[in-house]
């Protein structure tokens, strides 16, 4: 195992598989021999509630919380939630945004504004990060059904971030097979489509 450390901040909504991504990355990293701290946080438990996960790989002597400007990779699964992650982004790190729009109650009632994609993009680029924005309309189908968006986004993150210097594509693929043995083909398809989408 290489002597490397890597911090990942993941944010999104309940039902998007945010913590599943965290569990998958953490399990794979542990099997590769890394010290791993994974600190998940849930807001409201129902679908649509705030969810975040902080993963610290190769940092055995630190706590679970990533400091401001300390994340090498940020994965945001919803447009407005991405703004909550801005303070964690390390300059010249990688920010992957899945541009889903999930308007909170205050927005639907007209009591708050929802940020435009240009506004969010501007905030992300101001951190000095390498920004990749994925259009939810590009989420592929497998046998007529949309694939897991979390694995699609993870595939894109692997293609465009330094995570691939810590864990290989083969490592993650193996982890997917072990986590979903009955749905391995479908979930590998989602992961591979995300990887290809980030390269196009």
TrEMBL record:
Upper taxonomic lineage: Bacteria, Bacillati, Bacillota, Clostridia, Eubacteriales
Domain Pyruvate/ketoisovalerate oxidoreductase catalytic positions: 14-195
A single GO molecular function term of this UniProt record: oxidoreductase activity, acting on the aldehyde or oxo group of donors
Keywords annotated in UniProt: Oxidoreductase
Protein's UniProt name: Pyruvate/ketoisovalerate oxidoreductase catalytic domain-containing protein
One Pfam entry name: POR
SUPFAM superfamilies listed in its UniProt record: Pyruvate-ferredoxin oxidoreductase, PFOR, domain III
